[in-house]
Structures are given as C-alpha cells and as structure tokens.
Amino acid sequence: MKTYKQLVEGINETLSLLEEVEDLDEANENFDSNSKAHQAAKAVTKGWKAKNSKATYHPDGTATIHTNTAHSMPAHAFGHHSGVETTHSHEVVNAHLKRAGGEHGHSRDDLDNHHQKINGLHWKVKGKSQSHEIHIHEGVEQTDEELKGNQHKIDANKNGKVDGHDFKILRNAKKARYQ
After folding, report:
1. 62 — phi, psi (to 5°)?
2. Are residues 115 and 178 in the same domain?
3. 70: nearest Cα among 96, 92, 46
4. Residue 133 pLDDT level (bands cut at 50, 70, 90)
5. Distance from first CA to last CA of the chain, Å, rounded?
6. Do 98 and 177 fall within a single domain?
7. Looking at the whole model, is its pTM more than 0.70?
8. Residues 23-39: tens digit of each pLDDT
9. What distance separates the 2 farthest-apart alpha carbons in the chain?
C-alpha cells in the first residue's frame, strides 16, 4: 500500500504531465497563434482537465470547446471523506464564459442554443445536460429577423429563416408527391 506522500507525488507528477500537454496546442497543425478565436479558446480552457473541457482548433480560425460532465475523486478522498465530486458540463461552460468576460451563471436549459458576443468574438453554445459545445468565431453576426408575409410557409425546417436547406426539403417533398 502506498503512503500518503507517495500518492501526493504521483498526483503532482500527473499534473505536471497535463501541464506539458497544454503547451502542445501550438504543435496542433490547425492552431493559429494569430487567430483571436484560437487564443480565446486556449485561454479559457487552460488548466481544465481534458475529461471536462477540450478545445479543437479549426483551419478557418474558429475554435470549438467541447465540455463534458465528469466525476472525480476529491483530493481529500484519501483521508476521511470518500465521496465523488461531479463537475457538470453547464458549470464548465459558465466557468469558460466567466473567464472570457461574458455573461455567466446560466441554467442548464438556458445554455442550449445560447449566443453572446465577448470581446469582438461570437460565442455560440449548443447542447444539454451531459455535454456542450462552444463555437467561437470572428465575423458578422447573423441577425434573426422575423419572417414576413407567407415566408413561414417556405421555412420547411422551422428554423426561423429561409435558406437553401428549406428549398432542398421542398424539392424532395415535391418529388415524393409525384412518384
């Protein structure tokens, strides 16, 4: 059986390895040090364990942060308390939004399809319960204008806008009617 000192040394060694992994972001072929989205994702995920939060860097300069609900043994589990700590995905998202300087403290349900602009970047959160994705990008934010007249009849996928996907659905429906 290992002593407490040996357990602590093992934990410290593991933490130092995790810190080395964090520094490998620049080695990722898609990591662009000039991309504001990449830098923002790197900044808010720094220090998080991969099982809770992981950033993916895209060649177009955007970034996606994947969060998960994770269970872990607390540091004091080796003493008198042996409970399991849970970090919920929505708590991780709120921590990232807070660290980035944005609005935070949202409920789990409020985070599904949540949008906000932080320091000139667009942060879009999608997901529920066990996992979320935060997509970060620069650029023009699309406005959600209301559909006018009979446009709602063309909005086949009911996403509040008329786009190419709607026309594809309508074409396929028309083909199916005449076959």
Report:
1. -90, 170
2. no
3. 92
4. very high
5. 73
6. no
7. no
8. 555 556 778 888 999 99
9. 76
